[in-house]
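#onboarding

Welcome to the new folks! Below is a worked example of what a typical request in this channel looks like: someone posts a single protein sequence, and someone else replies with the predicted structure as tokens. Don't worry about understanding the tokens yet, we'll cover that in week two.

Example request:
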Amino acid sequence: MTLAAKALIGLRILYGLFFFTTGLFVAAYVLFRLGGPPRQLNAEAQAFTDALTRGRIIDPLIAISYLAGGGALLFRRTAPLGLILLGPPVVVIVAFHLVLDSLWFVALIVAAIYGLLAWEFRKRFRPLWTIRD
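Example response:
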């Protein structure tokens, strides 16, 4: 196994652990009111986050998708499923950081790692776009 392959495995596991543990924190807040919603850098971003939290539907969906997607990324066999489950939240994270706050580098890092992992598993995604009669 090459050094690059080992690095991708480590990156996949760290990315999965990041989303899984973030999902645990969100779930702890939703279920037990432990901790709190994240504080944002500016008023617009904070207003958007507060509105989503008050709606009471987005936070449980975020927790479920982060837990399922992050957990699936921890294992090579289920990593493509994890990438599919994390696709919509990653798009929202990237759009949020590009539009509402000044953390554009966070958006680039999250998107770059996601893209790298998706590229690594591109052959496993091929059946999604292949039509067989």
